[in-house]
Design a protein that fits this description.
The chain has about 260 residues and is α+β, with helices and mostly antiparallel strands. The chain has helices at about 35-40, 50-60, 70-85, 140-145, 155-165, 175-185, 210-220, 225-235, 240-245, 250-265; strands spanning about 10-20, 20-30, 60, 90-95, 105-110, 115, 125-130, 135, 190, 190-195, 205-210. The protein has ten helices and eleven strands. A three-stranded antiparallel beta sheet has the order 1-2-3. It has a two-stranded antiparallel sheet with strand order 4-5.
């Protein structure tokens, strides 16, 4: 059965250049269904990069199978749009003050998250380094993120650079820094920073907020609720599990609200 969901055309902030053909600048996206929610719930400890690839390979309807080839920023952008399609725009979270540990409630609209759009026209770039030599590099994609998902930060950074530099020999620390900066300048990005002031100790800070990781955490804790939704809809509407699980959360919730209203009357 096809998922009972509506799809939407989503423009990519970066895009995917392709040799011998036009670049992929948009995809057809559908919201998560119960099947993706269940997968995430059963894989709560999976590194974010692997979870993102699994979700995108399911929810990007066309072109298919692009999750590993998409740039990191495009993947984050699609996950942000999936969050909006699945749970809505309003985001609520609780963070801890880094000084006193007090809880801080935050909320924002997903549609307001800053997005750096940098359309890609080339699959690789060149940069001139000190000493007169130049190197070519490409931007990190989903496959690169998957390859370093279980590494510590320092090893992951070095491995990503090694994978993305296309020849030119080993780089000094200064050269590696220059290449990393050039990558950042050319890559699309979804970056949210929150200006927070602790209500307890008054400490002010700017805190980066990973919208992709947060969305995955939101979904991994929903297995109990998902089972209850399936049970209620199957009990009263006599739909099969497959029919219910093929619905996106907003549609399931709409039926549950109608059912609640009818029972109250």
């Amino acid at each position: 059965m096809r998922p009972l969901t509506e799809t939407a055309a989503v423009e990519l902030p970066g895009g995917l250049p392709r040799e011998g053909g036009p670049p992929v600048m948009s995809v057809e996206l559908r919201p998560l269904t119960g099947w993706e929610e269940e997968w995430l719930a059963h894989h709560a400890g999976t590194p974010a990069a692997l979870a993102v690839s699994a979700v995108l390979n399911s929810c990007v309807v066309s072109p298919e199978g692009l999750a590993g080839s998409l740039l990191a920023g495009d993947r984050d952008y699609l996950m942000l749009q999936l969050r909006r399609m699945t749970l809505g725009d309003h985001v609520q979270a609780v963070l801890e003050c880094t000084v006193c540990g007090a809880k801080m409630d935050i909320d924002f609209q997903a549609r307001d998250v800053p997005v750096e759009c940098r359309p890609q026209t080339e699959s690789a770039y060149s940069i001139a380094l000190s000493g007169g030599r130049s190197v070519r590099f490409r931007l990190p994609n989903g496959a690169d993120q998957e390859s370093v998902a279980r590494m510590d930060t320092a090893e992951a950074v070095q491995t990503l650079l090694t994978r993305c530099v296309l020849g030119g020999g080993p780089l000094s620390a200064e050269e590696a820094e220059a290449v990393a900066a050039a990558m950042e300048e050319r890559a699309p990005a979804v970056e949210l920073e929150l200006d927070l002031t602790c209500p307890e100790c008054g400490h002010a800070s700017v805190v980066p907020f990973d919208t992709t990781a947060f969305f995955i955490r939101e979904m991994t804790g929903r297995r109990h609720y998902l089972l209850r939704e399936v049970h209620a809809l199957a009990l009263h509407y006599h739909w099969s599990e497959n029919e219910i699980m093929s619905m996106a959360q907003p549609r399931r919730r709409a039926y549950l609200e109608l059912l609640s209203d009818a029972m109250q009357r």
